[in-house]
Every structure is written in structure tokens, then in C-alpha cells.
């Protein structure tokens, strides 16, 4: 693919709540005239809005979708939708200074919220007849509601930039009142086909309504999928994700701000390992799209616009070494069965149970009679898996335990003795290692420790394995 000179840039929800600051620094900054353009911005909903529309991502507190799905005729979802309207209006009131822009944004919100309200009422009414089941329409309902947040933030951002003299265009991929059924690439093409990137700045919704149904596979990771497909399909020079922090060698809250370093440059292998450890630089499916299209990804701190951030591409490391240390709390699901030796089927049955309960596997080990999966899930969900497996294998001994996986990751760990040095560092830091392993691909080493020791383990590994500034200069030389 021949790449253009334009970039495709994504702004996340938390950063969107500070879009007024980003307008002055990141989007406009010291640019003027033609230098303002050649950039496509893909935006998430304002911080907290998607939680109110669906459910809270961390606490699980129900939003409009969850209340609608479990409605007991008290119409709690109606009140929740009103709260969403109020939250949207508060969000754009904070960033829009001109009364006319606020009025325009208020009207946009009223149109979308009332449209959604009417749609959900009609759906309830339709499903009161025996031939229609609400459950068969819930995925479409989830997509409809989610798209409201991105449409609002993109519309408001375009208003804000227009008022500042930027020729910004609101590009709505949410399919609002659109009767055409399109796949994702066609939806993107239709939205951008008449945009002149030399003279216009498209502000694009992170949600795109399409035949595939983004939420069916990606749920709330859909905005990065939209972002990556736009970058790939338009042949972007770079795809850029603006976060509120740099991609660093560890969490500064754990190892200290004076100890971490910005990665600066890494590759998609490392990005995949980070995703597996719950520290997503980008959704792995979005990374795959960019990787296959040959589009490099840059991760920057949105509030340090002159810092180049970290470039992620296919380049190998300058020298072997650990680049980042991170950790994740997991549950160990251990299945011991004496009859397992030489018998096929146990692993497949365990995987089937985990998949059925939508449990994500972080890592796995096995020997002659024991298979252990380290999974990211609550103990409550894992217990449901245990019940299934006890029925399937009544003579097996099945145990669960809350643990942590601490991982040292780098483009090339060959020859750096990360496993042995890591074990020594953890022992010196009084961190008990329950299990450890390294794969032949040499991109990560994982240590399983007690759940309470995760932060201590990260600090110990970072201090022992991540080179300081002086060591990096010596290696480079």
C-alpha cells in the first residue's frame, strides 16, 4: 500500500473531557493555515458517558442498557436516559464558550436522546407481542446507545474547532437514521469519500455502525478498531493514539517517577504482550490491522504535544533487553486428575468451559496430570467454571486461588538472563515465586506471585532488569 502524508489520530474518553485544552495545544498549537490539516481525528465519548449509557466498566453499576435489558416495567432506564442527557449537556457546557454553540449542542443532544427514547419505547411495545423477543434485539440496542456518546463528542469537538477558525467536519459513522446496511470499510468510505484532507479536519465518531456489529466481537474496544481500519483503509502515514500518559517502563506510581523511562520505540510484539497483561497500548485486533497494513503506531501523551511519544512498528530492538515490567491480578484454575496422563480431551473440555463463561486466559502451564490456567476473571465467575468441570470430571481435584502475574517484556530477551535475574531479584525483594516461565520466542518472562505481592514484584523486577540511563548508553555504544 502506498501511504499518504496524513495521520489518523485517536483521543480517548478521559482526554476528551479536556478537549478545550487539547484544542489549544494538540490540535491547533502553533499550527496555522494548511499545517492544520492532513489529520483525521477519531474521538471517544466524553469521560463517563459510555458508563452511563451501558454500564460502569469497573463497578458494573447499570446504565441505560443494563436497566433496559432488565426492565421490570418501572422504566428505570427512562430516568437513566434523562441523566445521560444532563451529563452530555454538562460536558459540552464545560468546553463550549459561545452561547450559539451551546444551544446547537443542546439541540443535537435532545434530538439524539429523544430519538433513542422513542426507539426503545417502540421496541418494548413490539416485544410485548409473543412473536418478538427482546433478547434478539439487545445487541443492536447496545450499539444504538453506545453510538450516542461518540456522536455527541465528535459533534461538539467540530463546533469547538469551527469557532476557533478550523475547518472541522463532523463525520458521523454511527448510522443514525441511516437505512443502508454497510460493512465497516464501506461505512468508513461513505463517511470520508468527499472530505478534502488538505482543507478539512474530519472529526470522526469512534463508533461505526456496520453489518459486522463491532460490539459483538469487540464490545467497548470498538473505537480502536474503527481508528485502525480508518488508518489502514486510507493509507495513513501514521496512526497516533493520544493518551494521558506516556508508554513507560513501569507504572510510576509503583516504581517512582524518577525511575521510569519512556519507551520511545518498541514493536507490535511488545504491544501484544501488553494487551495480554491488561495494559493495552491498543486493542490487539486493531494492532493486527495496522501491522498488516504496514502503518506504524505512535502512542503519545496528549498533554505534551511536542514530545514524539513512543513509536510502535516492526523494527527489532537495537540490543536485547527488558523494556517494560507490568503485572495483572489473576485467578489460578488448577485441574489435577491422575487419569489425565496420556489421555486426550481434558484440555479441550477446560477451554470449552472457560469460553462458555467468557473467561479470558492470561497464561497456562501443564504437566503430566495437572493443567493450570491463569485467568482474568472474578472468583465468582471462575466458580461457575469449576461447577461445570466438576460435573465433567467428577474424580478430578479442582482448586482456585487469587494470584498475580508479573511480566518482564521486551522486543528481544535473548541472552539477558531475564528469568534467572528476575528470580534472584524477587527473592532479594522477599517476593515468593509460585511459578515462572519463558517461551522460546523470547519476548516476555512471567512470574506468578501472591496477589498482594504484585506491586512489590514489579518494583523488584524493574530495578533489576530495566537498564538505567547510563547502562542504556553503554549498550547502545
Determine Rg (CA atoms, Å): 24 Å
CATH architectural name of the largest domain: 3-Layer(aba) Sandwich
DSSP strand content? 15-25%
User: Quick one: CATH superfamily of the largest domain?
Assistant: Acetylglutamate kinase-like
Number of helices: 18
Write down the overall geometry.
globular
Mean pLDDT: 91
Termini, distance in Å? 36 Å
Task: Summarize the amount of helix as a percent range.
Answer: 40-55%
Overall CATH class of the largest domain: Alpha Beta
- Spans of at least 5 consecutive residues whose pLDDT stays below 50 are 470-477
Please give the largest β-sheet: 8 strands, mixed
**Structural class category:** alpha/beta
The largest beta-sheet arranges its strands as: 3-4-2-1-5-7-8-6
CATH topology of the largest domain: Carbamate kinase
* Structural domain count: 2
* DSSP summary, beta strand count: 14
Descriptive account of the structure:
By secondary structure, this protein is of the alpha/beta class. The chain has two domains: 238 residues, Acetylglutamate kinase-like (Carbamate kinase, 3-Layer(aba) Sandwich); 153 residues, 2-Layer Sandwich (VC0802-like), CATH 3.30.2130.10. The chain is built from 18 helices and 14 strands. Strands 3-4-2-1-5-7-8-6 form an eight-stranded mixed sheet, sandwiched between helices. It has a six-stranded antiparallel sheet with strand order 10-11-9-12-14-13. β10 and β11 form a beta hairpin. α10 packs parallel to α13 and α16 crosses α17. The chain is globular.
Amino acid at each position: 500500500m502506498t501511504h499518504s502524508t496524513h495521520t489518523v489520530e485517536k483521543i480517548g474518553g478521559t482526554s476528551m473531557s479536556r478537549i478545550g485544552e487539547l484544542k489549544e495545544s494538540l490540535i491547533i498549537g502553533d499550527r496555522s493555515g494548511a499545517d492544520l490539516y492532513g489529520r483525521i481525528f477519531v474521538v471517544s465519548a466524553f469521560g463517563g458517558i459510555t458508563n452511563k449509557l451501558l454500564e460502569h466498566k469497573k463497578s458494573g453499576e447499570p446504565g441505560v442498557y443494563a436497566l433496559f435489558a432488565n426492565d421490570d416495567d418501572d422504566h428505570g432506564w427512562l430516568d437513566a436516559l434523562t441523566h445521560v442527557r444532563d451529563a452530555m449537556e454538562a460536558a459540552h457546557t464545560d468546553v463550549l464558550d459561545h452561547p450559539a454553540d451551546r444551544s446547537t449542542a443542546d439541540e443535537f443532544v435532545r434530538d439524539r436522546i429523544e430519538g433513542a427514547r422513542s426507539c426503545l419505547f417502540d421496541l418494548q411495545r413490539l416485544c410485548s407481542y409473543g412473536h418478538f423477543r427482546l433478547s434478539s434485539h439487545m445487541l443492536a440496542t447496545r450499539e444504538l446507545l453506545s453510538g450516542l456518546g461518540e456522536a455527541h463528542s465528535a459533534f461538539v469537538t467540530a463546533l469547538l474547532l469551527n469557532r476557533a477558525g478550523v475547518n472541522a467536519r463532523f463525520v458521523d459513522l454511527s448510522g443514525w437514521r441511516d437505512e443502508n446496511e454497510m460493512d465497516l470499510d464501506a461505512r468508513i468510505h461513505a463517511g470520508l469519500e468527499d472530505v478534502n484532507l488538505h482543507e478539512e479536519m474530519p472529526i470522526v465518531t469512534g463508533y461505526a455502525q456496520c453489518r459486522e456489529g463491532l460490539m459483538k466481537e469487540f464490545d467497548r474496544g470498538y473505537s480502536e478498531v474503527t481508528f485502525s481500519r480508518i488508518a489502514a483503509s486510507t493509507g495513513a502515514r501514521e496512526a497516533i493514539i493520544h493518551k494521558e500518559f506516556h508508554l513507560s517502563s513501569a507504572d510510576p506510581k509503583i516504581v517512582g517517577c524518577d525511575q521510569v523511562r519512556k519507551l520511545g520505540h518498541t514493536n507490535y510484539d511488545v504491544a501484544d504482550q501488553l494487551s495480554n497483561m491488561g495494559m493495552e497500548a491498543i486493542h490487539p485486533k486493531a494492532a493486527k490491522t495496522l501491522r498488516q497494513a504496514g502503518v506504524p503506531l505512535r502512542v503519545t501523551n496528549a498533554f505534551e504535544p511536542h514530545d514524539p511519544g513512543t513509536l510502535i512498528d516492526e523494527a527489532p530492538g537495537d540490543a536485547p533487553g527488558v523494556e517494560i515490567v507490568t503485572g495483572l491480578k489473576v485467578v489460578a484454575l488448577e485441574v489435577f486428575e491422575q487419569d489425565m496422563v496420556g489421555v486426550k480431551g481434558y484440555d479441550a473440555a477446560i477451554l470449552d468451559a472457560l469460553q462458555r463463561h467468557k473467561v479470558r486466559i492470561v497464561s497456562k502451564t501443564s504437566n503430566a496430570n495437572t493443567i493450570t490456567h491463569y485467568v482474568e476473571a472474578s472468583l465468582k465467575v471462575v466458580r461457575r467454571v469449576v461447577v461445570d468441570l466438576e460435573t465433567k470430571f467428577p474424580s478430578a481435584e479442582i482448586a482456585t486461588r487469587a494470584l498475580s502475574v508479573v511480566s518482564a517484556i521486551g522486543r528481544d530477551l535473548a541472552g539477558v538472563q531475564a528469568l534467572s535475574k528476575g528470580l534472584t531479584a524477587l527473592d532479594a525483594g522477599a517476593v515468593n515465586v509460585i511459578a515462572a516461565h519463558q517461551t522460546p520466542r523470547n519476548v516476555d518472562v512471567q512470574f506468578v506471585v501472591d496477589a498482594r505481592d504484585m506491586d512489590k514484584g514489579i518494583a523488584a523486577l524493574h530495578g533489576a532488569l530495566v537498564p538505567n540511563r547510563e547502562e542504556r548508553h553503554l549498550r547502545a555504544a
